[in-house]
Amino acid sequence: MIITLNNIDLFYEKTGEGKPFILAHGNGESHEIFNETVNRLSKKYCVYAVDTRGHGQSSKTNEYNYQDIADDFVAFIKQLNLEKPIFYGFSDGGIVGLIIASQHPQLLSKLIVSGANVTPNGLKNKWLFLFRFLYFFTRNKKIKMMLRQPNISSKELRQITVRTLVLAGQKDIIKQKHTRYIAAQIANSRLKIVEGENHGSYIIHNTKLLEIIGDFLI
Fold first, then answer.
1. Domains in the chain: how many in total?
2. Contact 96, 74 (CB under 8 A)
3. What CATH number has the domain bearing residue 145?
């Protein structure tokens, strides 16, 4: 399906019935990374798996900003009249979820983020170096966004009041102390470091995520 908002076309797939549950993918990906998750999640929820601007089948864009992507999701929720959806964001999608929950405290019913960072320095040094190296040779604007954004302050994190689950893999590309910092700033949050997993191993084309978040959804 296509929805037009903020002067762009966003592609999304709607599956199942029940409480709305939005899935937001990471940098350079599409909603298809969640195919296996959607198959199971849609038995209980109405799942909206979205291609963010400049990704998948959504409109191309000249610039990439986390704020723009967050604004797209807010418009998406309001235009479709989704009442208090659950929002799950992976990596860049998690960053977007934090921005939405901070700026619109009453919009969501639950927030789940995994592998999110609130500053570029939240990335482990070797990964930050790798992305700088790749950007030097490619000038890829999606990588540029990762190197310059986000810049979410502790004050903004403390504005999040919705129930929040903060996840990261034990071998994530995000520093564990950074993940713990995010969870510590959000009053109504729970932290889980997923043993033996990396940034996306329990998420991309994998149903492990549902086992991990199951208790939180009750």
1. 1
2. no
3. 3.40.50.1820
